[in-house]
């Protein structure tokens, strides 16, 4: 079970470890809650659980009067709408205003001997409780707490790619915790613990099935599965998380007995309306539908000569009476064609499909756009759709599961990558039009917007296979809550909560490992943003030409002269023209294109000199040699933590890092050999290339 509790480990705080005695504040809890609610129940039980684990003594629940009359300090939690005079005295009107519906305020009220956690809503109280426990566990002084916080993004969503047979598409941590053998799980305990983990980071929505919806999952919208799904929705509801379903666009045909799924057909429209009514009867606070349509062999409106606006609006209309939303994915491209002309560059596809539709989507439709125009590579450009859709709700999609970034066998802390994307300047409304401002809705004043990401969890005891991959799950939620949080801070919080805060060397060592890991993985895999040098289908391990002659449109165009994809307007696919303002010229010109994206935008000779002063070929050799050395260093750094760490935690990570070091070598040798043979240019430093 090592690692199961993840960052809700609530490690015991030994007496003397903390500056004052937290027990003085935490042995009694008063709940300011007149209308009992499931979310408030979750908040109270989490608070009790956390404090009991950290202090070794269970706090008691007392009434407000008892709390005030008794000796010593206490905790008070609740919503101020309940008329709590104490909460009102503790927090001024400003705090009330500042935090919005999901925020919270925490303050030590010394005069009245209490620490108060207050919010407008029960969900806010729950987030406040998790934040308090985090502060407690990471050593904040209890006698001077004073903070308010609220989420920047309104929708903070998890996408499970789980299938009803128990498998997980691109899952690297065991089987599904939701499904087995075509049934929905009855192990609600595990699902509840997942809901706790998610809520503790601020996640408030989840789509519980794979975007590729097949025969059995299509039946999720029928009596066969709906009652059990309602059971899952109840678990998530208690943690402030709304449940969504991925749907099959062809449902009216497959389960409805209709002969068409044409979005403009009256019977089809009626069918979806009735379906929505049934779903909301079972799950009154159902979130809505997530849809992958006309992509990678999934059905969609194209079959009927309709477009994505027709398709999504039809569903949005059915959900509208209930406040539901349609999340429509923009990962749309033709996976069955080779490049015939420049217009079929896969990187162009999402923009080419969706940009012309801007303004035609209903207000309860959100387009879900992958961070990059290709597919979750270790490095690629930022999707030019961000900023380009002035009149459309947009959310960003990240991939926590490490499909192309080492599959949770290699260490790759992805928060720094995500932050680069979020901080990207689109120039859509002049300077300051960053991606994070598009997806938080502030740039264009959107009603709906936010974050989605593909989950990396499964039935493995530690949730994520690689223990350190938990930091990605944790970090995603924290970033969705507030994209300004530094990657280091997020990593440090995670480390301290999992391993304890008092061993400074351990915290610093793991922090260093996490922060270096993306660059290490990038250095021994595909170079300079070109991507895709993986084995087809499963996408693990090096295969330089694996996708080079396939129909998926993911080429590097390496020959004896050079490598890279010419995406310029002048001589290439014209993709650079999808960007705005100075970005167009930045990427169009080989002279200004950033090194790390050079081969994503340009085809250059191996002898082309980078801004770093190295040639492309020497860069490839050097980074691949260094990558292997740095993977070795990860292993050694971890080995130095042997003493004082729980042996089962230690061993599982040591095993993964040993495997990573071996596989990094394989990457190095295959990539270096390939380019040595193609180019005929030897390593300037004379190292042996196998
Ligand atoms: C790709 C995955 C594939 C997914 C697809 C998607 O390889 O399994 O179905 O994305 O996002 O990354 O729909």
Task: Provide a concise account of the structure shown.
It catalyses: Hydrolysis of (1->2)-alpha-D-(4-O-methyl)glucuronosyl links in the main chain of hardwood xylans. InterPro entries: A-glucoronidase_C_sf, GH, Glyco_hydro_67_aGlcAse, Glyco_hydro_67_aGlcAse_N, Glyco_hydro_67_C, Glyco_hydro_67_cat, Hex-like_dom2. With 690 residues, the protein is of the alpha/beta class.
Give the bound compounds. beta-D-glucopyranuronic acid
Low-confidence segments: none
- Helix fraction by DSSP (H/I, runs of at least 4): 25-40%
Average pLDDT taken over every residue:
95
Strand segment tally: 18
Sheet with the most strands, sense and barrel status: 8 strands, parallel, barrel
Number of helices: 22
Which class best fits the helix and strand makeup?
alpha/beta
Report the β-strand fraction as a percent range.
5-15%
Task: Give the C-alpha Rg.
Answer: 26 Å
Quaternary state reads: single chain
Give the neighbour order of strands across the main sheet: 7-10-11-12-13-14-15-16
> Per the principal axes of the C-alpha atoms, what is the gross shape?
globular
What is the terminal separation in angstroms? 42 Å
């Amino acid at each position: 079970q090592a690692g199961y509790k993840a960052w809700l480990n609530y490690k015991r705080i030994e007496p003397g470890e903390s500056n004052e005695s937290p027990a003085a504040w935490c042995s009694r809890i008063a709940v300011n809650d007149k209308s009992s609610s499931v979310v408030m129940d979750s908040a109270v039980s989490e608070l009790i659980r956390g404090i009991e684990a950290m202090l070794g003594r269970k706090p008691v629940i007392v009434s407000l009067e008892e709390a005030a009359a008794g000796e010593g300090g206490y905790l008070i939690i609740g919503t101020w709408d309940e008329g709590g005079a104490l909460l009102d005295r503790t927090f001024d009107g400003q705090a009330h205003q500042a935090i919005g519906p999901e925020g919270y305020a925490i303050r030590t009220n010394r005069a009245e001997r209490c620490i108060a956690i207050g919010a407008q809503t029960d969900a806010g109280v729950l987030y406040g409780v998790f934040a308090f426990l985090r502060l407690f566990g990471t050593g904040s002084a209890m006698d001077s707490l004073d903070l308010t916080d609220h989420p920047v993004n309104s929708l903070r969503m998890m996408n499970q790619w789980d299938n009803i047979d128990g498998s997980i598409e691109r899952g690297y941590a065991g089987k599904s915790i939701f499904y087995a053998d075509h049934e929905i799980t009855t192990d609600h305990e595990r699902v509840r613990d997942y809901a706790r983990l998610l809520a503790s980071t601020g996640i408030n929505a989840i789509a519980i099935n794979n975007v590729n919806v097949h025969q059995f999952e299509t039946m999720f919208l029928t009596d066969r599965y709906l009652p059990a799904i309602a059971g899952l929705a109840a678990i998530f509801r208690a943690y402030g998380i709304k449940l969504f379903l991925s749907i099959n666009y062809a449902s009216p045909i497959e389960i409805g007995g209709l002969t068409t799924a044409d979005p403009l057909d009256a019977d089809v429209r009626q069918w979806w309306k009735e379906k929505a009514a049934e779903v909301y009867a079972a799950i009154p606070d159902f979130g809505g539908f997530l849809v992958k349509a006309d992509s990678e062999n999934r059905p969609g409106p194209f079959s009927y000569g309709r477009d994505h606006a027709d398709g999504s609006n039809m569903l949005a209309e059915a959900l509208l009476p209930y406040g539901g939303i349609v999340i429509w994915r923009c990962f749309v491209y033709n996976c069955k064609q080779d490049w015939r002309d420049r217009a079929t560059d896969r990187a162009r596809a999402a923009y080419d499909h969706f940009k012309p539709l801007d303004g035609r989507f209903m207000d309860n439709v959100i387009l879900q756009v992958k961070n990059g125009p290709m597919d979750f590579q270790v490095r690629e450009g930022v999707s030019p759709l961000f900023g380009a859709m002035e009149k459309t709700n947009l959310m960003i999609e990240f991939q926590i599961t490490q499909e192309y970034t080492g599959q949770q066998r290699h260490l790759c802390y992805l928060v720094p990558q995500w932050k680069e994307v979020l901080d990207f300047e689109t120039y859509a409304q002049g300077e300051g039009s960053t991606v994070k401002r598009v997806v938080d809705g502030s740039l264009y004043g959107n009603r709906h917007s936010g974050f989605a990401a593909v989950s990396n969890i499964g039935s493995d005891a530690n949730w994520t296979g690689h223990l350190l991959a938990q930091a990605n799950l944790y970090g995603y939620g924290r970033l969705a809550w507030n994209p300004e949080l530094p990657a280091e801070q997020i990593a440090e919080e995670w480390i301290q909560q999992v391993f304890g805060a008092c061993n400074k060397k351990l915290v610093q060592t793991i922090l260093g490992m996490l922060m270096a890991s993306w660059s290490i993985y990038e250095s021994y895999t595909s170079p300079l943003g070109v991507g895709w040098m993986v084995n087809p289908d499963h996408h693990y391990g090096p295969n330089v030409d694996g996708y080079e002659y396939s129909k998926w449109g993911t080429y590097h165009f390496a020959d004896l002269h050079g490598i890279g994809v010419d995406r310029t307007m002048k001589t290439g696919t014209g993709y650079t023209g999808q960007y705005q303002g100075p970005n167009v010229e930045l990427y169009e010109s080989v002279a200004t294109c950033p090194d790390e994206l050079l081969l994503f935008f340009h085809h250059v000779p191996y002898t082309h000199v980078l801004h770093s002063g190295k040639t492309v070929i020497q860069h490839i050799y050097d980074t691949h040699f260094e990558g292997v050395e740095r993977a070795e260093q990860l292993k050694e750094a971890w080995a130095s933590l042997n003493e004082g760490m729980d042996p089962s935690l230690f061993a599982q990570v040591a095993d993964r890092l040993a495997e990573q070091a071996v596989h990094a070598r394989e990457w190095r040798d295959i990539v270096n050999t390939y380019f040595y043979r193609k180019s005929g240019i030897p390593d300037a430093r004379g190292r042996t290339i196998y």
